[in-house]
């Protein structure tokens, strides 16, 4: 056998599937990128033409926007894409100040802010220089030479550049603070162009909010240019004098002299136009890109020697969490397709020596991923050390330690066979159901307690000051507005703390919900379509795994609600957010069990469960008993 053939044979099938996935996703990404580059040229051409009203500006703007795209808008798109393909892990801080600083100073956040500054500065330079090339009267050249300083810079360009940079840096900061950088995975399958159109409509809606008659968020766009202009005028002399003193006098010396300035009030109108053009260029692509990153792949055009169902089985073995989303979305679609589903149930083993059939192989891979999610939840993503067995590696061959999952002859005779699926359950079914022990109070909670004690000591002084202010009419307004701002800060900090705390233990809620939906759909369909009862042989263990995951969610909720009571004024918003986030995954567990219970009814009593698991199953299925009585 040649070396090339040996290397080809050594590559596992799932690695080849991963390669095809990545190729399809990269092709889709570059399709989005070139469209955005053309859009960048169009926006640049139109925005500069609206200033000069000269035909040559359209050509310069189109070419300038396209060629500048890799250095202006693309870094922002790449940074936002990284947030979706490789979500960052951060530790939740209870203090508003600590939470803000930890969010902003993270390495990924710093780069995200830097990309906004790069985009704003780059587009401002392209915008001003195209206008300068086609209309000399506007005076937007980079240089404004003097006899003594031939390389002296133009302050008008610097004013526009810094104004745009400050605005978009603040915009990036708001995205980080409000967690707008995370992607939204689709709840239901929609064509790519439909999802992109929906994102475009949302982006246009955000642009309409800039106009006062359409929305209330226009204040940032309306107020920023005047506020920046006033602040710049107040600081320019001291700022540029300091810069000149430290060796930049040849470039900025005239900026520190009021008599030498070429700024005017009319320059504020150009700042408005520049920010508006930048927002159009920024908002629409970032609103659409989520569809190109998260929408399901088309498996119809993928060429592989494997059957479509075997292809999905190999794809499930991938260790890339991002690629796993696409496999689960396709498998969920297949589970609702009767034709494809029947093939999964009835396809025999891949070879005479295979230990399991296709449906059990798929089930095993799903249980492995579900077990990994359970381990992350039970150990709080490594924050709590448990005595549970580590997640078993996938066996490469027959394992003498493999145990057979208990089978129940409930509906029809079950084919007895050896199976390695028990290994996939080892991490989930380790010991009886019991709550996770409460976390030990750490240094962070001690600091919070000290802060609360210090606040109580000065509370009396603060109340006295508030009473004095409320004695005046304007003082009442100031106190009311200040209290509203402070309350919103604590609400934000509580909600952010809750999101970070929950996502530490449940980082991929959609993956868990999809797996549960697939389990329930295949289990319900197996009553009529699974001729040999393969799924029913693993149903008891699967139900037990779901119950244990549900129990771990309850434990996490109790732990976080207890901690929320110690974080002060943000505790109530934090508790509400914890209940909402955990409730979504908790509800998915209940829905999966209810669907199975509704289909099989009292026949489930033939299965044997540990007492704790049986009790929780009865609690979940209690609504079904009420319906039967009625």
Automatic annotation (TrEMBL):
Subcellular location: Nucleus membrane; Nucleus, Nuclear pore complex
GO term, biological process aspect, one: spindle pole body localization
Lipid bilayer topology: Multi-pass membrane protein
Stretches that traverse the bilayer: 32-53, 59-79, 110-130, 207-233, 269-293
Gene Ontology molecular function: any one: protein-macromolecule adaptor activity
Keyword entries, A-Z: Membrane, mRNA transport, Nuclear pore complex, Nucleus, Protein transport, Translocation, Transmembrane, Transmembrane helix, Transport
Keyword Transport: yes
Family: Belongs to the NDC1 family.
Protein's recorded name: Nucleoporin protein Ndc1-Nup
Taxonomic lineage from the root: Eukaryota, Fungi, Dikarya, Basidiomycota, Agaricomycotina
């Amino acid at each position: 056998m040649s070396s090339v053939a040996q290397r080809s044979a050594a590559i596992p099938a799932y690695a080849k599937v991963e390669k095809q996935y990545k190729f399809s996703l990269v092709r889709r990404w570059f399709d989005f990128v070139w469209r955005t580059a053309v859009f960048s040229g169009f926006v640049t051409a139109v925005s500069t033409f609206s200033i000069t009203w000269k035909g040559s500006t359209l050509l310069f703007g189109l070419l300038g926007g396209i060629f500048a795209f890799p250095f202006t808008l693309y870094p922002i798109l790449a940074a936002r894409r990284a947030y979706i393909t490789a979500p960052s892990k951060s530790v939740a801080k209870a203090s508003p100040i600590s939470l803000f600083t930890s969010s902003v100073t993270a390495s990924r956040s710093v780069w995200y802010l830097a990309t906004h500054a790069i985009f704003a500065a780059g587009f401002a330079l392209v915008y001003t220089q195209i206008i300068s090339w086609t209309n000399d009267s506007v005076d937007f050249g980079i240089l404004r030479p003097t006899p003594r300083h031939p390389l002296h810079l133009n302050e008008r360009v610097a004013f526009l550049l810094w104004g745009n940079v400050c605005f978009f840096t603040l915009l990036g900061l708001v995205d980080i603070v409000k967690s707008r950088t995370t992607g939204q995975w689709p709840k239901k399958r929609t064509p790519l162009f439909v999802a992109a159109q929906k994102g475009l409509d949302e982006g246009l809606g955000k642009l309409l909010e800039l106009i006062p008659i359409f929305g209330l968020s226009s204040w940032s766009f309306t107020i920023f240019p005047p506020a920046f202009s006033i602040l710049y005028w107040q600081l320019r002399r001291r700022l540029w004098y300091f810069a000149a003193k430290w060796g930049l006098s040849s470039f900025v010396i005239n900026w520190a002299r009021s008599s030498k300035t070429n700024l005017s009030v009319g320059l504020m109108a150009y700042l408005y136009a520049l920010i508006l053009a930048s927002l159009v260029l920024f908002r629409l692509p970032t609103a659409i890109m989520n569809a190109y990153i998260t929408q399901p792949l088309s498996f119809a055009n993928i060429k592989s020697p494997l059957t479509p169902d075997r292809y999905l089985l190999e794809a499930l073995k991938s260790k890339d969490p991002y690629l796993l989303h696409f496999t689960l979305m396709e498998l969920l679609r297949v589970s609702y397709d009767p034709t494809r589903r029947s093939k999964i149930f009835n396809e025999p083993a891949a070879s005479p020596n295979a230990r399991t059939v296709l449906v059990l192989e798929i089930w095993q891979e799903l249980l492995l991923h579900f077990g990994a999610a359970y381990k992350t939840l039970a150990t709080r993503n490594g924050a709590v050390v448990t005595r549970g067995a580590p997640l078993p590696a996938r066996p490469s061959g027959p394992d003498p330690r493999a145990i057979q999952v208990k089978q129940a002859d409930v509906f029809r005779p079950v084919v007895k066979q050896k199976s390695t699926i028990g290994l996939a359950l080892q991490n989930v079914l380790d010991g009886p159901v019991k709550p996770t022990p409460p976390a030990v109070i750490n240094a962070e909670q001690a600091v919070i307690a000290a802060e609360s004690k210090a606040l109580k000591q000065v509370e009396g002084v603060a109340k006295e000051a508030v009473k004095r202010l409320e004695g005046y009419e304007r003082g009442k307004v100031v106190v009311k507005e200040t209290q509203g701002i402070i309350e919103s800060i604590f609400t934000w900090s509580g909600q952010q703390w809750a999101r970070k705390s929950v996502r530490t233990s449940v980082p991929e809620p959609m993956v868990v919900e999809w797996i549960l939906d697939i389990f329930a759909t295949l289990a319900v369909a197996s009553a009529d379509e699974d001729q040999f009862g393969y799924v029913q042989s693993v149903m008891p263990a699967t139900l037990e795994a779901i119950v244990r995951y549900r129990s771990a969610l309850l434990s996490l909720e109790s732990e976080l609600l207890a901690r929320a009571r110690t974080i002060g004024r943000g505790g109530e918003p934090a508790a509400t957010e914890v209940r909402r986030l955990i409730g979504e995954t908790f509800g998915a567990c209940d829905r999966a069990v209810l669907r199975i219970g509704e289909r099989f009814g009292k026949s489930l009593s033939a299965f044997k469960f540990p007492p704790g698991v049986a009790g929780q199953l009865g609690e979940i299925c209690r609504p079904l008993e009420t319906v039967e009585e009625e």
